[in-house]
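2024-03-11 09:14:02 DEBUG pipeline.ingest accepted 1 chain
2024-03-11 09:14:02 DEBUG pipeline.ingest length=422
2024-03-11 09:14:03 DEBUG pipeline.predict start
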Amino acid sequence: MIVKELGELTSGELERILKRTNVRNVNDSVLPILKDVKEHGDSAVKSYTKKFDRIDLTEITVTTEEMKKAIKTVDPRLLKHLKMAASNIRKFHEKQKIGDWYTEISDGITLGQKITPLERIGVYIPGGRAAYPSTALMTIIPARVAGVSEVTVCTPPGLDGCIHPATLTACHIAGSDQVFKVGGVQAVAAMAYGTDTIPKVDKIVGPGNAYVTAAKTLVRGECEIDFPAGPSEILVIADNTAKPSHVAWDMLAQCEHDPAAISILVTTSNVLATEVQRIIEDEIKSCERQEIITQSLQNAAIITVPTIEECIEFSNNFAPEHLEIIVKNPQALLEKIKNTGSIFIGNYAPVSAGDYASGTNHVLPTAGYARIYSGLNIDHFTKKTTIQIINKKGLATLKDTITTIAEAEGLYAHAKAVQTRF
């Protein structure tokens, strides 16, 4: 972990902090798998599942009986809280919905917009290192709120050949139509191209490792994707009002996701920086996922700067997936924040709240993509179609403008298409 003043960072250290995983680095490994699944379908999917997940499956579809069994085995307390989280997620995403609208811009000309949900969505839910029922809720529920007709889920099986019961239960609560025991690049390929078992989808959403993210970017054209979503990130902007233990544990929480996860504190307080470093070094010894956290801390940094403005500048350049703002007057900072996936304000707004229960979505752009992408929301599951209702009087007011511009472009039939109506 780098602990320095911003001005003391070497160019190499700064580059290391700002550098993210480049999914293009794994394209050569991903492309042959995509091609194989496209050409050989289910047999290729099963072959790669055996190779990478060490499971030899004859059936990749989760049956109704398997789903029922999973729900029965889930702890009632967990079931209760999955439903509570689902309710909050549903409420938040309902607020994002907009309906069809029309506006009369002049006499005889009415314009409008029609919102149409996509028909078939593919959801990728990570697995392997841990179960992610929360991601099932975060991806399936917005699709259902948007009105998507069919939601297909792919998620890696465990060594027993089964999907974790909590993940299956969350899929059921959220409203998935079908779940397949397939992960990795082969899952993305199957949903993009379609196989005899797994249907071809219109769009794939959900986070994954560098290989999954690379696969998603490479299948665009066959189907759309939400955005690249790789290893998780947190950046904390804090002053002396921040609680050191809160910041330290928020950084440790991010580290336990993945060895490639990134945790950064940028602060105006030397005292806070020192104390956060001490707590992290003390508490890591008792963390359950110590090995992963230790590796991830190699990507971490605690940076001190003279002013809050420099904190904001650093954050906007980094464009973090998650941004915590723990300062005396956080609202004053909000309008200056340009690039981030999701914002958490105050000592009692940890990223964990958004990860699980507050209702906002935790599928967010990483690796600097927050500069150009929004986090997962209702718009990812809909199309917007424009509508024009124009009568003769309305077209008359546009006639000269249309014909003049059309003729200037040399498109005389466009002009004639209007003139003939008069």
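2024-03-11 09:14:41 DEBUG pipeline.report The longest strand covers residues 109-117.
2024-03-11 09:14:41 DEBUG pipeline.predict end
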